[in-house]
Amino acid sequence: QRKMILDLDTGIDDALALAYAVADPRVDLIGIVSSYGNNTLEVTTQNALDLLHLLGQDDVPVFKGLPHSSTTDHFDVMQVSKDIHGDNGVGDVTLPHAPRVAETTSGVDFIIEAAHQYAEDLIIVPTGPLTNLAAAIEKDPAIAKLIGDVTLMGGALTVRGNVTSVTEANIHQDAEAADFVFKNQANLTMVGLDVTLRTLLSKKETKQWRELGQKGEIYADIFDFYIDAYDRLGIDHRGAALHDPLAVGIAIEPTYATFLDLNMEVTVDQASGDYGRTIGDNTKLLDGTSSRAAINVDVARYTRDFMDLT
Ligand code: BDR
Ligand code: CA
User: Fold this and answer.
1) Which SUPFAM superfamilies would you find in this protein's record (predicted)?
2) Which residue out of 14, 39, 83, 131 has the highest number of ligand 1 atoms within 8 Å of its CB and is therefore the one to mutate?
3) pLDDT for 43-82, tens place per residue?
4) Peptide bond before 11: cis, by omega within 30 degrees of 0?
5) Does the ipTM surpass 0.90?
């Protein structure tokens, strides 16, 4: 079992990443760090608590991350996030309320403590902006080499972005933090739109969850909202993307994907037109590889395993 921290901006696909990590016997989920992103930090933290309650996991601690990027003093939820994830982040479905609140330790300090405690046994899977991880590395630079793996959902190298033509949403929320993480974190795997837009789920699959009782009904209602949004907004009429659960899957089972080893530094552009673009820097070639990007995925095997587990 690998120790895993999920850093979530819950979020419909984040909600599925959580269910997947909870269900996978190879994962020891040691804690959740919440992030602003698909909604405000208050809302995403509560969603994580409530979903864990629904999943019968009230003993998994939830730590609050940072409420906005370090380059701003506030955060506004993007309209596109509301369109895709609903006003409450989980498809406007009302969740049973968790009987507890988040821990008092900050998410940033939890990441630092866990890195020292578990070192190479620790996998961190950020599925929102990289603000929390960047802040943790900035506060304690030693952790960048201690953490076993960071497998993040974010970016786009070989396909268009989903915020602008070159920018993916998680990176776009905080390009400065993403750039810092790409430059400093060892053993980094990028699971971007290159692969996540290939793993789609349709109502044929969510219908199967409805046979699993209350938990399945709620998850099906949440995901159907997301499928309808993809259809309505013309993103994809075949189904909706398993962005965040694919990052969890690849973190545990890298053979789902094929990778491009980036033997150069990845940089995240910050100029206004390109803000948030993930791209290699050919002036900074590295010996060996520090990061890699998933560029293809075994869709059939991944989605079958995903359905078997959830
Ligand atoms: C990413 O952005 C968020 O809206 C999703 O939860 C996912 O993490 C996709 O670009
Ligand atoms: Ca997310």
Assistant:
1) Nucleoside hydrolase
2) 14
3) 999 999 999 999 999 999 999 999 999 999 999 999 999 9
4) yes
5) yes
